[in-house]
Amino acid sequence: MRQSDEFAAGHLPGATNVELGTVADAELEHLPLTIMCGHGERAMTGASVLKGNGYDVDVLDGGPDTWAAATGQPLQTRG
């Protein structure tokens, strides 16, 4: 649920980025999904849209920096 430049700056390894403006049309595997944004607001909105489209969705409390601090694992970057 992050902007492409935010995603490129640091994301969980193996993550797929779907910007909030395109989430209603996203074609994702129907597996349980965990989504995040920088702080949670966009992710909550995106989760609502995805749940309305039949996806099983959870929202990560926090963002990628929260995950990295909690796990001690580095974020992946592209740029």
Structure description:
The protein is 33% helix and 8% strand. The protein is mostly helical and 79 residues long. It has one domain: Oxidized Rhodanese, domain 1, CATH 3.40.250.10. The chain has a two-stranded parallel sheet with strand order 1-2.
Short description:
The chain has 79 residues and is mainly α.
Which shape, going by the Cα principal axes? globular
Helix content range of the residues, please? Answer: 25-40%
Q: Report the average pLDDT across residues.
A: 93
Low-confidence stretches: none
The ordered H/E elements are HEHEH
Give the number of DSSP strands: 2
Tally of distinct domains: 1
What would you say the CATH architecture is?
3-Layer(aba) Sandwich
Fold-level CATH name: Oxidized Rhodanese, domain 1
- Number of DSSP helical runs: 3
Instruction: Please compute the radius of gyration using only Cα atoms.
Output: 12 Å
Proportion of residues in extended strands: 5-15%
CATH superfamily, by name, is Rhodanese-like domain
Layout: helices, strands, pairs:
Elements: H1 4-9, E1 33-35, H2 41-52, E2 57-59, H3 64-71
Provide the descriptors you would attach to this structure in a database record:
79 residues, mainly alpha, 2 strands, 8% strand, globular
